Amino acid sequence: MTAASLETVAKTSAERGALARARLLRGLLPALSLALVLLAIAWLNPRAISYFGFSLMLNLAIPIALATIAQMFVISGNELDLSIGTFVGFVGCVTATWLKDAPLIGVVILLGSIGIYALLGALIHLRNLPSIVVTLGMSFVWQGLAILVLPKPGGKAPDWLLGLMAFKPPFVPFPIIAALLIGLIVHFGLMRTSYGVILRGSGGNPAALGRAGWSLLKTKIVLFALAGLFGVLSGMALIGITTSADANIGNGYTLLAIAGVILGGGEFVGGRVSPIGAVIGALTLALAASPLLTFMHIPPDWQVAANGAILIIVLAARVLISRRER
Amino acid sequence: MTSVKSLLTKPWIWSFLGALLVWLATIAFTGGYGAGGMVTAALSLAVFTVIVGVGQMFVITLGPGNVDLSLPANIGLASAVAMKVMDGNDSMIALGLLAALACGAAVGAVNYLLIWALRIPPIIATLSASFIIQSIDISYGRGLQIKPPPGFADFANWQVLGIPVLAILTVLFTIGAAIALQRMIYGRSVLAIGQNIRAAWLAGVNVGRIRFLTYTLSGALGGIDGALLAGYFRGANVDIGNEYLLASIAVVVIGGTSVAGGKANVPGVWGAALFLVLLLTMLNTFGVSAGVRLLLTGLIIVGVITAAGGQKALR
């Protein structure tokens, strides 16, 4: 081996090292932004960093994390679900009415709605439809159904659900344990199983996957059904916390879920998503959304803007890191 | 016969047929009562959807992932700005319109700045921008109770022989937009970028400039729409633009523009806007509840897009 070629080998390995570092940094970015938000909260109000404080601040983190995971499945297949928010609202209304009064019918309705999600996946694939428009239309359908199920705010969560969401484990607040569990389970299923690879591949290179003999129809159906499943879980968790429902209760979740996936390192195309990142993104948003801003004495008028600004800052940081990757 | 056949292959004809069908169904229900008034009302309401729809159409035509989600916030802010500048004073109408236009164009320019500088998908860029705009609007328009100048409100509601003047002006505007799309370098560049951004760049299209112009145009149209809405409904409010997020995207797609980009259709925007407005009128006439109305609207949108079918992405 000549000295010149040795030199190139050394150079490429150094480059590879830099690349790996940038990639690692990029992978850590969601965690870093969460840490940053936590630090800011700790600095502004040290008393919030306690068992009770976290239980309170992360109150709504579980449904947000579940809705974010639902959106993440859809995004893995290069689609976008603009109806997840109203779907969560619909599930909430069913949970607070049918699931309490007639549990069997309630379960059938919820399973049926997951079935509708699966059918939507099939429809979008078979007719080659733009998912944005189909789900935009569906958002009206779910909202309409929610109003029909529960014309005015009310209803009551089933007792077992209330008991579950009010669970107080020792030392670590329930939302944190739940978020960890959700993240790990989905991470294992999507990132570590062979069919999980196929599912992500359907977003990464559908043509290649199709030629390798995998059914793209099936992957799309599975991804949408999973989105439906996590949407149902999100709606139920939400009602377990709020105890009663309202047809508009989930409307904000559509945008929160998309933002959570992107904050967590996911990308709109290419099947590049990260379940743990998505959960961290959801936690960051849940914390940044109100506790942080309240501690910073930001008037309510500007809280929405602060959310937008946080998104922009994180994305800007990501661009800086990505630039080094090239 | 052949002309009928060639007409049926036009993607925009279906939206007009749909609008006609819905109109006939409503008239059949009322027994012919209010047929003309319904068209007048539909035209005046469709105008607002058409204006933002055309802006959204140019953006969507840029290719997959391009969409302007900031329109509702943009419309809300521009309506407040217009009302504040006009201050109920007839002599300030032109200035108020100009301010709304500038406000909208600035929003559009910021959108593109975010897309370009942060290299983030337009969906997230316009979404984050809309959060910020919404806050500015809430803070700026707080307690805003300024009525539009009487002259402006009258103008926005002005009809000649049952035809809203605003609708006539908007038809002229859409003809201009169609010419810009099909016959001018700007429109051809937008189509080229939508078909293949790299090929367009290699062919010498200034991709960055065209995208910047398109987002600015969409923003400016949102701004002018906000001012007109405030005039028509005699007052600005934060939520005035909320329904135009879905409406602007829906009319573009139902009207036969490809979501994959590179293929746009201006007449279809009119047909689809009339279809949506008449659909709402029909459901209201039938006296269905809010829940059923939403449910049917959603199902019909999904049904129409399924029937129209998706085109293979041009790649």
Q: What gap, in angstroms, lies between the N and C termini of chain A?
A: 29 Å
Q: Poorly predicted ranges of chain A (pLDDT <50, ≥5 residues)?
A: none
Order of strands across the main sheet of chain B: 1-2
- Number of helix segments of chain B? 14
Order of helices and strands of chain B: HHHHHHHEEHHHHHHH
The geometry of chain B reads as: globular
Helix content of chain A: over 70%
Number of strands of chain B: 2
How far apart are the termini of chain B?
Answer: 34 Å
Q: Key terms for this structure?
A:
heterodimer, A: 326 residues, mainly alpha, globular, B: 315 residues, ABC transporter involved in vitamin B12 uptake, BtuC, two-stranded antiparallel ribbon, Monosaccharide ABC transporter membrane protein (CUT2 family) (chain B)
Protein architecture, described:
The complex is a heterodimer of chains A (326) and B (315). Chain A has one domain. Chain A contains 15 helices and no strands. Chain A has helices at 3-44, 51-57, 61-76, 84-96, 98-101, 103-126, 131-149, 159-165, 174-192, 194-204, 206-211, 216-242, 253-263, 275-295, 303-325. In chain A, helix 3 packs parallel to helix 9 (174-192), helix 3 (61-76) runs antiparallel to helix 12 (216-242) and helix 6 packs antiparallel against helix 12 (216-242). The longest helix of chain A has 42 residues, at 3-44. Chain A is globular. Chain B has a single domain (8-308), classed as ABC transporter involved in vitamin B12 uptake, BtuC (Orthogonal Bundle), CATH 1.10.3470. Chain B is 74% helix and 1% strand. Chain B is built from 14 helices and 2 strands. Chain B has a two-stranded antiparallel ribbon with strand order 1-2. In chain B, a hairpin with a 2-residue loop joins strand 1 and strand 2 (163-164). The chains are: A mainly alpha (326), B mainly alpha (315). Chains A and B meet through helix 7, helix 13 and helix 15 of A and helix 5, helix 6, helix 12 and helix 14 of B.
Short précis:
Chain B: One of its GO terms (molecular function) is transmembrane transporter activity. With 326 residues, chain A is mainly alpha-helical. Helices cover 77% and strands 0% of the residues of chain A.
